[in-house]
Design brief:
The chain is mainly α. The protein has 29 helices and five strands. It has a three-stranded antiparallel sheet, sandwiched between helices. Strands 1-2 form a two-stranded antiparallel sheet. Strand 3 and strand 4 form a beta hairpin. The model has no long low-confidence stretch (mean pLDDT 86).
Length: 760
């Protein structure tokens, strides 16, 4: 900044601009509230049909979000401008005061252009008027005066230029629309950018020469700023795509681990997470600089990086391990995945994996003992698992497909390749499970996100706040999954991919209402949308036989059987809770709900019995142990949380964030603690706390008996406070209908209704 520009600057126009921005921010705040409370809220409650049910509803939701982002961006700009103006006025005051003090020592300054100035005497003694007393000064006074003026100009220049930089970065975040980046003042935004530049300097260094202190400093700042959009973009673009990959590989596996310090190992683990999240945040920017970075990163995918570290990995190998963490731009992930799959398909040859082989001993993943990180497909699929919209897009049903999926040509090519064609290999560390295929687990996570609209490891708080995230697009992915795993090859696919079982159970549990709807008619006729109404626009269509086949396959595996059975039980209870026995209409609904729920449970239980008997032999100790574990499914309900039209059910043996998100009959459950649903969860909690001794073996006869007993308990709970209604139900033979719905699928029913058990 030039001296005269600061000294004589008129900041009134900037003040007028700030006033305009303040008024604009207030108006946008009003529009934001109106969009949220009227536009979005009314659209959510409206009974949309046809194209409006999908396209228009989604457009309204995005438009409402744009008002929020517009207000956020305007508010940030206002604060940055206001803060900058205040700082510049303060520096102008400091400059004026310094000049006045200099004059007292006969010193002044002259602007010499381009940010430079010179210190001169205010009045030369030889030219002073006769009798004028000219103040004296020393060379030290001159130096001190010059340094003070320089400090003021430097700070003013930094304030002005940093404000300009952060404003450009902020506006460039969104090419169309507005950014949701929020800053309270210029200082916080400028500090984020400055820190990014400093950390980029560390990352441009040779990673082998990075000290533990420097790596710790990098991790601390990445952890602090990894969700800051300006920091993330500045770091990514300053370091560059290739150097970022080379740096991480050098820290993660220097010379393939031969000189690895234990402290550096832990730092590398944190770097993988912190840097991954930071890069994800950076990709959310629409700036030209980030577009170039993303294009470069994808282009680097197939090529080796030309380094000695981590066995000279390809760009795919490194980036896929970083993207295991973070919220990434959907289009970037899809473009990256397209190129990765195309590259992978060309090398999908038995016993010739380009990734997992004896000559590749690089280690790039620190977060899973069953996955060293050599196969980049694993990390990419984990990224999809954390980015639901990108996952839904990546596995989208082909255009033109309608009314469910009935043939292979209606299945997404990526999904077909990853589930049926790709050769997957285990990649464990020395402490891992030798036969565990981490890629199948990652694929399950990606499909879980694609079908539910939630990150696969989302927590109960997010589900309570978000409710049901299903859409016509997520349902389109679910239809494909049900078609593939409910097909004739389904039993073998599930048997060969056991790591997918828990995810498949979660997916089916999330669509149990749609599956029940498919079971409600006679074949594909007379399905009852009145009893099983759609809870979202564009519900999944499986077909009656498709639903039976899918459930019969999932029933074969202990993990998927438990997840779906729990979801079915909770959904049935919620439906009964929404239709208390106080009217004929309610009881008619409840009667159908009981029958369909019993049929679904019967398909699942029969498949479980048949698979145990086929694998181990009927009534053998091993088969009975299998059934005893499956009979203990009610423990899943311990810790279940009900809100927003869904129940979030923690899976056993997993982290608390591994949830079955089961749909319920209504957005809210009236006084849930006193309803059947609440009682059932409380009962399961009490049983778990008492920790009764569970039978080590359960025969198929006992297993079916427990199934019937569960249905009977639900039946009694429904009529608990209305004995007259129970008498009516008894007269109408509800009991016989419910039993026949459950037991009618018993014995060998799946031999001709569902899929038979898997046989070696």
């Amino acid at each position: 900044m030039d001296l005269d520009a600061l000294r004589h600057g008129n900041f009134s126009k900037l003040g007028e601009a700030i006033t305009d921005w303040e008024q604009m921010t207030k108006k946008l705040a009003d529009l934001q509230r109106d969009a949220e409370n009227n536009l979005k809220a009314k659209a959510a409650k409206a009974n949309w049909a046809g194209v409006n049910a999908t396209v228009t509803r989604e457009f309204v939701g995005k438009t409402s979000g744009e008002f929020t982002d517009a207000h956020t961006q305007a508010n940030s700009i206002t604060k940055i401008l206001k803060d900058t103006r205040g700082e510049l006025i303060s520096y102008r005051t400091q400059l004026t005061d310094a000049i006045e003090r200099g004059i007292k020592k006969n010193l002044t300054v002259m602007d010499t252009g381009n940010g430079t100035f010179t210190v001169t005497m205010n009045i030369h003694p030889d030219r002073a008027a006769k009798g004028t007393d000219v103040p004296e000064h020393t060379q030290q006074d001159v130096d001190n005066f010059r340094d003070e003026i320089q400090r003021i100009l430097t700070k003013a220049t930094e304030s002005d230029s940093s404000a300009a930089e952060v404003l450009r970065l902020l506006v460039d975040q969104a090419k169309h629309g507005f950014s949701d980046a929020s800053y309270k003042d210029r200082d916080s935004a400028a500090e984020a950018v400055k820190t990014a530049k400093d950390m980029a300097g560390l990352m441009r260094k040779d990673p082998h020469k990075l000290t533990s202190t420097e790596l710790n400093q990098l991790n601390e700042n990445l952890a602090k700023y990894r969700s800051d959009p300006l920091f993330a973009e500045k770091l990514a673009t300053d370091v560059g795509a290739k150097k970022t990959l080379q740096f991480y590989a050098g820290v993660a596996d220097p010379y393939q681990g031969y000189s690895r310090d234990p402290k550096m190992w832990e730092q590398a683990k944190q770097l993988q997470k912190n840097l991954g999240i930071t890069l994800g945040t950076a990709t959310l920017s629409d700036s030209d600089a980030m577009a170039g970075w993303e294009k470069k990163m994808i282009g680097l995918g197939p090529d080796q990086l030309g380094i000695d570290d981590a066995n000279d990995p390809s760009g795919f190998a490194v980036m896929s391990n970083l993207m295991r963490f973070g919220d990434y731009d959907d289009q970037f992930l899809n473009d990256y995945g397209e190129k990765l799959i195309a590259f992978d398909k060309e090398r999908n040859v038995k016993d010739m994996s380009p990734w997992i082989n004896n000559w590749n001993q690089g280690d790039l993943n620190f977060w899973d003992k069953n996955d060293r990180g050599r196969d980049p497909m694993n990390g990419f699929l984990q990224a999809l698992g954390h980015n639901p919209d990108a996952a839904t897009q990546f596995f989208a049903q082909p255009e033109g497909t309608g009314d469910g999926v009935n043939k292979n040509s209606e299945v997404n090519d990526h999904l077909k390749y990853l589930t049926k064609e790709r050769i997957w290999l285990p990649d464990p560390t020395l402490d891992g499970e030798r036969d565990f295929i981490a890629g199948h687990n990652a694929l399950g996570h990606a499909l879980d996100a694609a079908t539910t609209g939630y990150s696969y490891d989302t927590g109960t708080d997010a589900v309570k706040a978000g409710g049901d995230h299903r859409t016509a697009a997520t349902a389109g992915v679910m239809e494909q999954v049900a078609y593939l795993y409910g097909s004739e090859d389904g039993p073998k696919m599930l048997h060969d991919q056991p790591e997918l079982a828990d995810s498949l159970g979660k997916m089916a549990g999330a669509y149990i209402d749609d599956l029940d709807y498919e079971l409600s008619g006679i074949g594909d006729h007379s399905k009852d949308a009145g009893d099983f109404p759609a809870r979202y626009a564009g519900r999944a269509e499986f077909g009656n036989q498709g639903a039976i086949d899918f459930l019969s396959v999932l029933g074969q595996n202990e993990d998927s059987h438990k997840a779906v059975t729990t979801a079915q039980h909770l959904y049935t209870l919620s439906m009964l809770d929404s239709n208390p026995p106080t009217s004929d209409a309610n009881m008619n609904h409840a009667r159908d709900v009981m029958a369909v729920g019993a049929e679904a449970r019967g398909i699942l239980d029969n498949s479980r019995v048949q698979q145990a008997e086929t694998t181990y032999g009927a009534n053998t100790d091993e088969a009975n142990k299998e059934l005893s574990r499956s009979a203990d499914w009610k423990k899943l309900m311990v810790g279940a949380v009900v809100a927003g039209g869904v129940a979030a059910v923690p899976l056993p043996g997993s982290t608390a964030a591994a949830l079955v998100i089961a749909p319920l009959a209504a957005d809210t459950i009236t006084d849930a603690a006193n309803t059947m649903l609440g009682h059932e969860i409380d009962k399961a909690t009490d049983n778990a706390e008492s920790d009764p001794l569970v039978q080590s073996q359960v025969t198929s006869r006992d297993f079916y008996r427990q199934g019937v007993d569960d249905l009977g308990s639900t039946y009694d709970s429904y009529f608990k406070d209305n004995p007259k209604a129970k008498d009516t139900a008894d007269d109408q033979q509800w009991i016989q209908e419910t039993k026949s719905s459950y037991l009618g699928t018993g014995s060998h029913e799946n031999d001709y209704r569902g899929r038979p058990p898997y046989k070696d």
